Amino acid sequence: MKQNCPNILFIMSDDHAAHAMSCYGSRINRTPNLDRIAEEGMRFDNCFCTNSICTPSRASILSGTYNHINGVTTLATMMDNTLLMFPKLLQGAGYRTAVFGKWHLGQGARHCPAGFDDWAVLPGQGYYHNPTFAFKDPGGGEKRTVQGYVTDIITDMCLDWLENRNQGQPFCLLCHHKAPHRPWYSDDKHAHLFLNEVVPEPETLFDNYQNRAKAAEAATMRVGVHMNEMDLKCEVPDKMSEEDLRRWGYQRYIKDYLRVVQSVDDNVGRLLDYLEENGLAENTLVVYTSDQGFFLGDHGWYDKRFMYEESLRMPLVMRYPREVKPGMVNDDIVLNVDFPALFLDFAGVPIPDTFQGRSFRPLLQGSTPPDWREAMYYRYWMNRAHHNVAAHYGIRTNSHKLIYYYYDGCGQKGTEDACCGGSGDVMELDKLEPEWELFDLEKDPRELKNVVGDPAYAGVFHELRDELHRLQAELGDTRYSKDTD
Ligand code: CA
Prior knowledge:
By secondary structure, the chain is α/β, with parallel strands linked by helices. Helices cover 25% and strands 16% of the residues.
């Protein structure tokens, strides 16, 4: 290990959309502690996940590989912990490593955290109040209930671990919050927030999905319409128009979501304070991100999965005073698969050839390599389950996005499970023929106008489709059988 390797504090929340952080220009909340990281470091405006759901994105973040390589394509595919993951390599290089909080990559000896000196994780999704944790033991985790609120407890665990660590080693600490994942149960401290306020609605709350692939209309994740009593914390009124349901449901859930976010922000502040009070701020790389984005009423939706911007984008702010100037903003394309290469780069550990991401340390230093990527590949493998969202893949460049909905689970585990959300008629996805969507992100940043049939975009379409297929081949994925030139 090189001398003076930085400590790494990687804070990841669950389903926290960038547009619910004030440093990203949120219209609906303030996050002063998350903003501190951005103000004292760098904000990334185009950090994307390669599959917008919890388990797959987490597998990519740890292993540096896409889901067709690491096998964690859906929520039903647990991660094999014998895979090569960056914490193991850091541990082998002399780092003290730990993870506390949400894991969601499986349980038991084969799926529990590996490569960590210490850990305590929530089994499955975990609970907001008085959660059970699995604590490190040879059998894959001894379960005990801990009294309190989950975001506070995870932070307490991190602070205790920092306080009692071996100071002769650099540390890599993963603080993985459950919040603000559904079902958004607030703590008492923040329960009063937004009580008598009307939270501003997103521009696309009343999206009617016209001129889009059928996938958009088919999805059973409309705010108010497809939410259950757990989401809304009350009975769902009948005899309300869809527009009124969306408007009402939005106010119901977004306030809970933001209350839960506020606790994350407070607790990030506690960790930042600890670093500063203990002389660790200068030599610790602090990262705040989320496993993917989330629809905050955008397109009339909650949840994620789609390759649309709000779900695709991960918030990412980083601070490391030794190399990163304060107040920097970067708009290069950075991906969840890049984190392992970045951390190994900082630790002076060689990056395995099998890792598919790239260290973005030069971006943090303010210079973009001339051969930095100009397009990213995305694939959502599930089909139908959950929320009746269609399987799709696509490519996003700095100016356009091309999506291919193929409406087929391709035999992936858990893909065809019953969809949830609402009752009544649900569009049968596997009876649909594949469709393309093309968006001009400069003219249509809200992705409301699919221009795939527009002759003016024929050249762009062919160029992007070729690039999509090239990226697929380069990354070792296979294209869908009906996706032919
Ligand atoms: Ca998530």
